[in-house]
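Hypothesis: this fold can be encoded by more than one sequence.
Test: take the structure tokens below, design a sequence, compare later.
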């Protein structure tokens, strides 16, 4: 077993065991729509309000998305403890899978809520939305674990396999390790691709979700991979696709250099789009028959109706490239465990509202809603310090 790095005394120790537990009994949730947006979820309790109003001059989806990617935010996290987890092979897990996480522990961490954050495509544990969300959670008094998806964040050397949007089993095994360490209350949030993984994990758990998992959240989740891949290829989204393709090409070349003889970089000559990459590389090396087979099997849309723990899903209608199908939308709206905040505006993983005049909130609305939702499910309202 690959040991942990810089494991501090008194911090949780993480064996890599898989755990299964009975159904979590949870409270249903709902929210109030605002500014023409929609909110759903069968409801005896209104946990979070759908009150997003875009920042002045940032009303369009492209403006929100681009500004959200570049606007800096403060990092309120203390120095991280780096830990490498070896995921035990078997079933859907290939041998030699190791994940790097950056962990921030409160005093007496096992008595505190722990937030596990999962980033998006070609992101990492250092992505700005990860740091922003983690900083809010830390100020709330929670432990924070920033996960690098398999092979991301400069960790291509830790696993011989590639990553893809459907690797919810990595998330499930990491949660099992956290539970085995003694952590009693765990929440998960994923962004974009990470949102798909988190929702897929929750749906696969279904009624057998570990009782230690309090709730989950997904921001701009790629629930319907085929539709989103096609939307990304539209002419008005070519800038985003060019960025993703270049990043994927660089990552694949680094992987090939680190694992000689395992990956054929000549395949990149066929790659002009994200779908091309998934057709010729992801599918080839991760056991799918092609891009369509991968998109179908990896999409969380198939299990949204099985989610049995409180879940928050936030999606903007003007997201440039993430599409939620009508079938997925019906599942999100019908599941009483899911609070679905569907805003008219907000772009992709952005949701930039106006900062408060007194400086108590920096305007990152979705990140604030995550903390509000988890705090309400926990029965402990978000502290003012966690909202900016």
């Amino acid at each position: 077993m690959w040991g942990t790095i810089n494991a501090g005394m008194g911090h949780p120790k993480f064996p890599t065991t898989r755990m299964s537990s009975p159904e979590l009994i949870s409270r249903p949730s709902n929210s109030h729509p605002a500014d023409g947006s929609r909110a759903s979820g069968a409801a005896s309790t209104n946990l979070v309000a759908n009150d997003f109003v875009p920042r002045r001059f940032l009303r369009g989806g492209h403006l929100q998305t681009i500004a959200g990617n570049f606007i800096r935010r403060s990092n309120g996290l203390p120095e991280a403890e780096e830990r490498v987890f070896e995921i035990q092979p078997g079933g859907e897990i290939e041998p030699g899978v190791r994940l790097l996480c950056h962990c921030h522990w409160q005093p007496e961490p096992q008595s505190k809520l722990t937030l596990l954050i999962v980033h998006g495509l070609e992101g990492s544990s250092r992505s700005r939305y990860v740091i922003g969300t983690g900083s809010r959670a830390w100020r709330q008094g929670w432990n924070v674990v920033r996960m690098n998806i398999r092979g991301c964040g400069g960790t291509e050397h830790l696993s011989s396999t590639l990553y893809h949007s459907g690797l919810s089993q990595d998330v499930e095994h990491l949660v099992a390790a956290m539970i085995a360490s003694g952590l009693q209350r765990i929440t998960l949030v994923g962004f974009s691709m990470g949102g798909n993984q988190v929702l897929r994990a929750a749906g696969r758990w279904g009624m057998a979700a570990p009782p230690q998992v309090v709730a989950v959240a997904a921001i701009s989740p790629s629930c319907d991979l085929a539709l989103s891949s096609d939307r990304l290829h539209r002419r008005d989204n070519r800038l985003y696709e060019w960025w993703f393709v270049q990043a994927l090409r660089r990552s694949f070349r680094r992987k090939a250099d680190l694992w000689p003889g395992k990956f054929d970089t000549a395949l990149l000559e066929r790659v002009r789009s994200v779908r091309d990459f998934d057709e010729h590389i992801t599918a080839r090396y991760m056991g799918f028959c092609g891009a369509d087979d991968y998109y179908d099997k990896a999409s969380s849309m198939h299990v949204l109706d099985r989610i049995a723990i409180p879940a928050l899903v936030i999606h903007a209608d003007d997201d440039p490239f993430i599409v939620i199908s009508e079938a997925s939308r019906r599942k999100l709206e019908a599941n009483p465990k899911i609070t679905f905040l569907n805003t008219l505006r907000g772009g992709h993983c952005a949701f930039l509202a106006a900062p408060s005049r007194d400086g108590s909130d920096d305007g990152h609305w979705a990140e604030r809603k995550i903390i509000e939702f988890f705090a309400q499910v926990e029965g402990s309202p978000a502290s003012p310090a966690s909202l900016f």
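Confidence is low (pLDDT under 50) at residues 1-10, 15-34. The longest strand covers residues 97-104.
Hypothesis status: open.
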